[in-house]
Amino acid sequence: MTTNSNDFELREAPETQLSILGKIWQDRMGRIGLLMTVSVFTISIIGPMIWPFDPAAVGADASSILQPPNSQNWLGTDELGRDVFSQFLQGSRVSLLVGVTATIIATVIGAGIGISSGYFMGRLDTVLMAITDFFLVVPSLPLMIAMGSIFGQNLTVIILIIGVLSWPRNARIIRSQTLSLRERKFVPRAKSLGATDLRIIRKHMIPHVLPLVVANTILVVAGAILAEATLAFIGLGDPDRISWGSMLHFAFASGAIGRGAWWYFMPPGLGILAIVLAFTLLGHSFDRINNPRLRDAA
Amino acid sequence: MNLLEVKNLSVQYGSGQGGVLAVDGVDLSVGVGEFVGLAGESGCGKTTLAMAIPNLLPKYASITTGTIEFEGQDLSNKSESELNEVRWRDISVIFQGALNALNPVATIGNQIAEPILIHEPGTSHDAAITRAKELLEAVGISASRSSSYSHEFSGGMRQRVMIAMALACRPKLVIADEPITALDVMTQAQILELLRSLSETFNLSMLLISHDLSVLAETCDRVQIMYAGKVAEVGTADDVFGEQNSAHPYTQRLLKSYPNIHQERKFIDGIPGYPPDLSKSHAGCRFAERCTVSVEKCFTDEPELAVISELHRSACHLVGGSK
């Protein structure tokens, strides 16, 4: 009976052959999200390199102030005669930078706290979850404003503030998943093999919670971008950097809205909308792929 | 000298008033190359006894008395890190419900390699995988399957993987806790045959736990019947299961609970009643209440294991005379 085991040789399973991007592409929501995300990234990376105007170059005379779109300045000029389109391109970089880095911080903290809390349980769990609950119920915007005005207005501080305030949801979700995972039989098995806690977490826990982490991460990006725009709009952004939020801030402050200078405030507004929508669609699509129960819901 | 010599072992779950003495003063020995079967009803302490050997008991269980001598050294008072030296290198375990004991998101090869990487720290990952492949071949699975995942395997194949994992560090003793439960009869036979042939190639001793007496009768050299945390009977498979040989009423009733293909068809006898509550203390024989031949003495005096023949012992007042 020994080795006719070639009979068991693996058959091609078409479903598993699709990479995760392929699966997202199959999903309508995911495809739109993916296309939008890729175009936003492309624009923000390549855009400022090829668009000829310096976003900070002030107009030469009064006639260049608040010009509507024309053949030279595609999106017109602002109250100082600066080119709006080049600001728009430059601003997308800040949004993406803040969105991605703040999310990495939030994910590392959230996953770390979630996994250790769920895996070790006991007193550590009680303490960590008390902290998590605290951050979960604290209204984050006022806290961000307070921290922003205390720690100063530069990009690093803003990224840190957003990152440190965005992890609690992640931690809660990952903790629940870990709690259920640690009761699966392969965990005591690995333990009796002599595996250390670190090894079990690395080899048996993280691979299991990873899809969940990724799905949440994408959604956190959208939140982080919005948070940055909000801070910048109320004037707590980095004054040295143009972001979509700060463009809205200056448009509002200079009365562009009242003067009907739509080319000044619409692009950053729509930009924020598009980028948040892109990441949200992508996140939901990813969630749906990983959670079969949601698959037929939409 | 025996490979494993357990003496007067007691294991208690919980403590104080509510504590349950799941294993109560039990002896057990396994010789080199020997297959020992452990049988009994659910909840009679088989698994607890077996898991106490490499001390893989849950936190709320504790060994209260007794010694566990493995190759002359007592395991019962070793620290966790000392036990880790023994586990898998000397004593490995095939777990109960092995079908769920594989990680669905790790490859089979990596999982078999895990004990090698843990217990032989110098081994490179590639070398460990190579050995995992050899082990897969040894249990009758093509080495090319080492990069598969457990959901791509059938129940019997997963059980083979668990066996391969137990053999990974070339142990001397393998504790197999219900290795064939939840498999169909054909697969059961294949797995048992595999265990037998592997024990010869790897020179293994085996402690086989099962409630399937026919399996034990066929594969084991010696069999130990447990009842309510105590040894009821121990002897060679022939002593315990032989037609006229079994010397304990419990064993006799257990055997009657199975249909005999050589006899005419009739309703099989079960054993009415339940095993006693182990959280209470007992006077007399624990089987007395369910025993059809019990006498007054059975309810007052606890029987000791009486010698019947060289290897055969039975704990019953009615056999073995004097006690």
What CATH first level of the largest domain in chain B would be assigned? Alpha Beta
Count every beta strand of chain A, where a strand is a DSSP E run of 2 or more residues. Answer: 0
Strand content of chain B: 15-25%
Overall pLDDT level of chain A: 82
GO biological process, one term (chain A): transmembrane transport
Main location (chain A): membrane
Keywords (chain A): Cell membrane, Membrane, Transmembrane, Transmembrane helix, Transport
Subcellular location (chain A): Cell membrane
Q: What does this 3D model show about the protein?
A:
With 298 residues, chain A is an all-alpha fold. Helices cover 69% and strands 0% of the residues of chain A. Chain A is built from twelve helices and no strands. Chain A has helices at 14-17, 20-26, 28-50, 84-120, 122-137, 140-151, 155-165, 168-181, 186-192, 197-233, 244-253, 262-290. In chain A, helix 11 (244-253) packs antiparallel against helix 12 (262-290). Chain B is built from ten helices and twelve strands. In chain B, the strands form two sheets. Chain B has an eight-stranded mixed beta sheet, with helices on both faces. A four-stranded antiparallel beta sheet of chain B has the order 2-1-4-5, covered by helices on one side. In chain B, helix 3 crosses helix 4. The interface between A and B is medium-sized, with 22 and 31 residues. Chain B: InterPro entries: AAA+_ATPase (IPR003593), ABC_Ni/Peptide_Import (IPR050388), ABC_transporter-like_ATP-bd (IPR003439), ABC_transporter-like_CS (IPR017871), Oligopep_ABC_C (IPR013563), P-loop_NTPase (IPR027417).
